[in-house]
Amino acid sequence: MDAPALFAAGAATGLLAGLTTCAAVQLGLLAGAVRDAGRPSAPVAAFLTARLAAHTGLGAVLGVVGGAVQPGPRMRGALLALAAVALLLFALDLLGVRPVRRLLRRGTCDAPPPAKAGEPSCHAARSPDTTARPDGRAPSARRLRGGARRRPVVLGAATVLLPCGLTLSAELMAVASRSPVGGAAVMAGFVAGGAPVFGLVGAAQRGLRGRLTPLAVVALPAVAGWTLLSGLRLGGWVPAGGGGGAAAAAASAVRVDASGRQTVTIWALDRGYRPAVVTARAGVPTVLVLRTSGTRGHTRAFTIPSRDVDIVLPVSGETRVDLGSPGAGRLDFVCASGHFPGSITFR
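Given the sequence above, the corresponding structure tokens read:
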């Protein structure tokens, strides 16, 4: 594929990511970027520009060195857990919890004066009598606002550290391009495709501080909890479980041929795996067969955390994974975003 086609493919993936829970892990960073801004247009533009630069740079690197810099499931799980903590902190900030507010707003002075008497205000730091440099001179308002101006850039660039399943798909397209131009085109398209959603959310932040604040206070912890659970599943730190399925379907997924080789067949659907819970024989050579048919969701990025394995499935087709001869126990699997879990229990 040439660069324009790769850009278009990346844009389609980015638009889908922006319209799903894939964007939820990054919206906390966007909220922090536009926090306290009277007019969100400038910080949103800075956030999106930095996001574009970081992803385009990563795409170019992936196009050159392949998957060598691709973080594994455990690293991505840890990043999702950190993202959940960030979302929870922003929810507490909107709720007005003072210790959290002071923590998040340390070093910025673009917030309006506090409404309550006695509440600390960084505006007081603009007075030469209250805050002075070691040489005795008062810092300028420009220096005090510098951290606030840099914040959207830093947070926008940090989104590259919070990948989801669809981000992984775009990154693997960048790897497959085998060129810095092609890899950069894929990731630039990915950011461009999601930009309208991020722009609309950023522009709505002023409303969140008013009538929509109660909704945000409820929604952000819920998203944080879901993100944390996804990260723990992805890292293999909690049992992935699974959505179950009909017993007949689970039984028919396991076949043993005349040579004694066991085959476990699982379908990757847009909203999960079928069957998601399978029981198979332990101690025999086993092949996992993953099938897709028009699948375009997170489940195409298939992860086995305990083996540090990531597999991107085709939209339609069959992928075979040699599992060796597993001993008794449970092999958890999950989509690369941590949303859709499943397991194979060997007995």
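Confidence is low (pLDDT under 50) at residues 107-132. Try to locate this feature in the token string yourself.
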